Amino acid sequence: MEEGAAGVGGGVGGGGVAGAGAGDRSSFVIGLIENRAKEVGVAAFDLRSASLHLSQYIETSCSYHNTKTLLHFYDPNTVIVPPNKTAADGMVGVSELVDKNYQASKKVTMARGCFDDTKGAVMVKNLSARDPSALGLDTYCKQYYLCLAAASATIKWIESEKGVIITNHSLSVTFNGSFDHMNIDSTSVQTLEIIDPLHTELWGTSNKKKSLFQMLKTTKTTGGSRLLRANLLQPLKDIQTINARLDCLDELVSNEELFFGLTQGLRKFPKESDKVLCHFCFKPKKVTDEVLKPANGRKSQLLISDIIVLKTALDAIPFLSKVLKGANSFLLQNIYQTICENPKYGSMRKRIGEVIDEDVIHSRAPFVACTQQCFAIKPGIDGLLDVARRSFCDTSEERSLLCQI
């Protein structure tokens, strides 16, 4: 185990994002670029949570040990690199590294001009949900120019490939350094059976539970599972963050009411929350005839489904607020103040409540979900919709009567 070059997330607020969980399809798109001073810039964009993680570090080995570890951590579905080899003499270069470790379909080569650090800084400033001063962009702009260049190419590729524009002030952006986390190299991860057990092919899937990650995986949300994976692959070494988490743990252990209330509260949040919230961060790139014409049934179904998931998540906040109101630890107090007392969530609930029926909740059962989508919008919002639903009910009743005859 050694100190890594690029920790992910961190901070007392419990930040940090992991790659896709074991068995899940990765949602990361990564941009890589290097200079002749053995510096590597990395921009990792998580399509699932609309977050951008920027890293820049010096490679100390000819084998690109730090970069290989970081790629193993994110497990990207796409890696974007410039066409020309800019590595120092004796270095393999990030492009060749990707060729050796990833399938050809995962590699995307973009023109060197797409890796523009000036444009990248402007993009990050405009897209970040945090204030530029709080983000520290002015401080990192010149120091981390390589990762900003990688961010420029990554964002351009995503917007071009997906045909969307990322909404301003919607991304969670973090600058990651080697100060708060340690990296565990990929060989040690495999040998220590941190994520996957050894000899899985011999023992079968029943051996899956024998990895450290699977043994500790009692999380109640998908995001919690990814955060657990992140902390196992990149352990914290920031004392302030560690102490804040330990204080939170002490309070949960000593206060059973808080512990079980928080467990119940987390269960109320849909597992698809982060993925759905990410959908609202993108908008169509061009206003074409396809966009202007009435939405087809599939698009309407997806949109209503996303609104129902958002409504269910917002409805869970009051219960979470009640549970955390008396919490004493800094971490839980911070969650209560920034989330539970945020008036914007109440405004969103009220606006959704004007259109969506109050009794509608998210369901993973296909038939129930389909029925809820049909009757989610309140009567009187759209006359044609009311007529269509009436016809649907009449047809369903007639079919039911015919089946009984």
UniProtKB/TrEMBL annotation:
<dbReference type="InterPro" id="IPR036187">
    <property type="entry name" value="DNA_mismatch_repair_MutS_sf"/>
</dbReference>
<protein>
    <recommendedName>
        <fullName>DNA mismatch repair protein MutS core domain-containing protein</fullName>
    </recommendedName>
</protein>
<dbReference type="InterPro" id="IPR007696">
    <property type="entry name" value="DNA_mismatch_repair_MutS_core"/>
</dbReference>
<feature type="domain" description="DNA mismatch repair protein MutS core">
    <location>
        <begin position="188"/>
        <end position="360"/>
    </location>
</feature>
<comment type="similarity">
    <text>Belongs to the DNA mismatch repair MutS family.</text>
</comment>
<dbReference type="GO" id="GO:0005524">
    <property type="term" value="F:ATP binding"/>
</dbReference>
<dbReference type="InterPro" id="IPR045076">
    <property type="entry name" value="MutS"/>
</dbReference>
<dbReference type="GO" id="GO:0007131">
    <property type="term" value="P:reciprocal meiotic recombination"/>
</dbReference>
<dbReference type="GO" id="GO:0005634">
    <property type="term" value="C:nucleus"/>
</dbReference>
<dbReference type="GO" id="GO:0006298">
    <property type="term" value="P:mismatch repair"/>
</dbReference>
<dbReference type="GO" id="GO:0140664">
    <property type="term" value="F:ATP-dependent DNA damage sensor activity"/>
</dbReference>
<dbReference type="Pfam" id="PF05192">
    <property type="entry name" value="MutS_III"/>
</dbReference>
<dbReference type="InterPro" id="IPR036678">
    <property type="entry name" value="MutS_con_dom_sf"/>
</dbReference>
<dbReference type="GO" id="GO:0030983">
    <property type="term" value="F:mismatched DNA binding"/>
</dbReference>
